[in-house]
Write a structure and sequence with these properties.
Distance between the termini: 33 Å
Shape: elongated
Number of strands: 0
Length: 159
């Protein structure tokens, strides 16, 4: 559930930044505040941050969250009796992912975000399929948590 909420918050924040940064860059271009070639190049690079860098940053954050979820799943020791609770919480998380994906779709359906929607393909792809991604990460996590080999043979280490 933490993975889902974190991805949702990052998607919303980065999508808003991807809207704001090119808008500011376009305003600076039309205002003619700096007529030098270095100033124009800096404004162009600022516009690229909103369109390209935001997607790459979101990709890195999402991959990092997936990797950290898998590492945490590997390091957690739990009894197999808790698989029922894990499946129950995974179901609740998938249900929540449907609502969060719908909330994102309603946000980006606003006409003012049309240009940003066209430029942010990766964020839109992830948020359109957030329930499938959540199911895949949850399924991998449940497999790692409950199917890993334990060398302690039921004893706590150090006891």
């Amino acid at each position: 559930m933490v993975f889902l909420i974190t991805v949702f918050v990052f998607a919303i924040v980065l999508f808003i930044f991807a809207f704001i940064i090119p808008t500011i860059a376009d305003g600076l271009k039309t205002a003619g505040m700096n007529e030098s070639s270095e100033g124009a190049q800096a404004i162009d690079e600022m516009g690229e941050i909103g369109s390209i860098t935001m997607q790459r940053g979101f990709f890195l954050l999402m991959v990092g969250l997936i990797i950290s979820t898998m590492i945490t799943s590997f390091l957690v020791r739990t009894h197999p009796i808790f698989i029922f609770l894990y499946i129950l919480f995974l179901g609740i998380t998938i249900l929540l992912s449907v609502y969060l994906g719908d909330a994102y779709d309603k946000l980006v359906a606003t006409p003012i975000f049309a240009d940003t929607l066209a430029s942010q393909t990766f964020i839109n792809l992830v948020m359109s399929n957030i329930n499938i991604i959540t199911l895949a990460v949850g399924a991998m996590s449940i497999i790692i948590v409950f199917a890993k080999f334990s060398s302690f043979r039921g004893r706590q280490p150090g006891l």
